[in-house]
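haha ok so turns out i had the wrong file open the whole time. this is the CORRECT one, sorry everyone. sequence first:
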Amino acid sequence: MAKILMIDDDQDFREAGRQILESQGYTVVSAATPAEGEAAISRENPDLILLDIMMQKPDDGIALAQKLSREGVLIPVVMLSGVSTVTGYDYGKDDDVLPCRDFLQKPINPETLIQKVAEILG
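then structure:
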């Protein structure tokens, strides 16, 4: 089954996501920082990356997604964030600013997460 890399500084979110996705047969690996995420991408070769926008810095996820895009990494990225719940700012896909396959707003309903992952991975 497909391997998913979750890059998020929220340990509780990573654990909940892991449980949800593993219950569907996916293999899940995780990282708490962009640097750990980059190392995991090289080491694990995931089929999908779930990437939080705000980690140690408010734009950590955006910066990593842009870097992966510049480097030609073809692994689909789904951006995750609760920032619009807090700020009212609505993020969306943008090939230059926010290069990703899709965007999910936290908190994420488990069924929505499962559906989006299945849709992207086929």
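Confidence is low (pLDDT under 50) at residues 85-90.
again sry for the mixup
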